[in-house]
Write a structure and sequence with these properties.
Blueprint (H helix, E strand, L loop, with lengths): L28 E3 L19 E2 L8 E6 L2 E10 L2 E4 L9 E4 L9 E10 L10 E5 L13 H7 L5 E6 L15 E9 L18 E4 L14 E6 L2 E11 L11 E4 L5 H8 L40 H13 L9
C-alpha cells in the first residue's frame, strides 16, 4: 500500500490583499464586520457536486490561513483548538471561523502552536492548531460511543464542508464555504485496495462520497459531519482521494476518524473533550477547565503548508495533478 501523501494540499485561491487583522503570533483574534448581504460569486456548484453553505450553518468550520492565503480547511473542536489535516500543518498562521465567505466577516484568530500527529504521513493525517485566544463559536462534538454505534454504517448520511475547489479537476476556486451531502461507503476503511491505510485500519479512517459529490483540493483538513436525529457530529477529517479515482475530485475519498485519536487530542489539550451523553439528555460537560498549556510539538512536515506566491498556485496545482498516476489524489 502507498504511504499517505507528504505533499497534499493545493491553495484554495491566489494571495489575498493584506488584512488589518493579525495573521501571526501577535494581535490575537479579530472579529471583522459582517455585512447583511454577501456578494454572489457566480459559483453554482460547491465541494464538487454541492452548493454554497447558508449563513450560520457551519460556524465551526475554519478557513486555514498561510500568511494571506487560504490553503486548507479545519474544524473547531475546543474553544481555542482547531483540528485539520497533518499535511496542512506547516506554515499555518491563522484561522477564520463563523463565516460563509472568508473574504467577508467572520472571526479571525492567530495561530499560537501547531501540533501534528506523530508520523502523520504513515498514521493519522491530523494536526491541531492552538489559537491565541478562545473563539466565541461553539466547538463541534466528535462522534463517539453511542453515536457511532447507532449511526455510523455503510450508507449513513454525511455532509462534507470546506473551502476547496468546486470542479472535478480541482481547478476552480472561490471564497465561499461549500457543502455537499453524500453517504459513507466504507465506515471502517477496510478496503486497502482503495487506499485505506493498513497501519490504522480498521476504524482509523472511513471512505465516503462519490457519484459526483466529493471533497477537493483546499478541502484538506475540513470536516465530514455525520447526520443524526440529534444533529451533526464530526466523524471525519478530509485527507485524500481514493487510489483508483479517475478524476481528482468527484469519486469519493478517505477521511481520518477523529474518534480514533481522542486520547491523543486530550493529552495535547490537557483536558477531556465533551462527548455525546449516551443514555442521557444533552452532552457531557462542556469545555470548562481546558488547559492553555501545550505539550512539546511532534512535527513531521513538508513544504506544502508554506505560503505560496500567486504565480506559483497554478504551477503547484498542475504539478500535483501530474503526479496523480503514481500518487493517490491529494486533497
Amino acid at each position: 500500500m502507498q504511504l499517505l501523501l507528504v505533499c497534499a494540499f493545493t491553495p484554495a485561491l491566489a494571495a489575498l490583499p493584506p488584512e488589518t487583522s493579525s495573521t501571526g503570533g501577535e494581535g490575537g483574534g479579530v472579529v471583522e464586520p459582517d455585512d447583511a448581504v454577501l456578494p454572489d460569486d457566480g459559483n453554482e456548484d460547491g465541494v464538487t457536486g454541492g452548493s454554497p453553505a447558508a449563513r450560520g450553518t457551519w460556524p465551526d468550520v475554519a478557513a486555514i490561513y498561510f500568511g494571506n492565503e487560504v490553503g486548507c480547511t479545519g474544524v473547531l473542536i475546543a474553544p481555542d483548538v482547531v483540528l485539520t489535516a497533518g499535511h496542512c500543518a506547516a506554515g499555518i498562521t491563522a484561522v477564520k471561523l463563523d463565516t460563509i465567505d472568508f473574504q467577508r466577516g467572520g472571526e479571525r484568530i492567530a495561530a499560537r502552536k501547531v501540533v501534528a500527529y506523530p508520523k502523520w504521513a504513515r498514521t493519522y493525517d491530523l494536526a491541531l492548531v492552538f489559537l491565541e485566544e478562545k473563539s466565541t463559536v461553539e466547538p463541534r462534538l466528535i462522534a463517539q460511543s453511542c453515536v457511532l454505534d447507532e449511526w455510523l454504517a455503510e450508507g449513513a448520511s454525511v455532509a462534507v464542508v470546506g473551502y476547496g475547489a468546486t470542479d472535478t479537476r480541482g481547478e476552480v476556486y472561490g471564497t465561499s464555504l461549500q457543502e455537499g451531502y453524500t453517504e459513507v461507503q466504507d465506515p471502517d476503511c477496510t478496503d486497502l485496495q482503495s487506499g485505506c491505510n493498513k497501519k490504522v485500519s480498521p476504524s482509523g479512517e472511513l471512505g465516503a462520497g462519490g457519484g459526483g459529490v466529493d471533497a477537493c483540493f483546499g478541502d484538506s483538513g475540513g470536516p465530514l459531519y455525520l447526520e443524526t436525529d440529534d444533529g451533526f457530529y464530526l466523524v471525519g477529517i478530509t485527507s485524500r482521494g481514493y487510489d483508483d479515482a479517475r478524476l481528482p475530485c468527484s469519486e469519493g475519498g478517505i477521511y481520518v476518524r477523529p474518534d480514533a485519536v481522542v486520547d491523543w487530542i486530550e493529552d495535547e489539550i490537557g483536558a477531556e473533550l465533551p462527548g455525546p451523553a449516551c443514555g442521557g439528555i444533552g452532552v457531557d460537560d462542556a469545555f470548562d477547565g481546558i488547559d492553555d498549556g501545550v505539550t512539546s510539538m511532534s512535527y513531521e512536515v513538508g513544504v506544502c503548508g508554506l505560503p505560496v506566491a500567486t504565480s506559483g498556485v497554478a504551477t503547484l496545482a498542475a504539478g500535483l495533478l501530474a503526479l496523480r498516476r503514481r500518487l493517490r489524489p491529494p486533497r
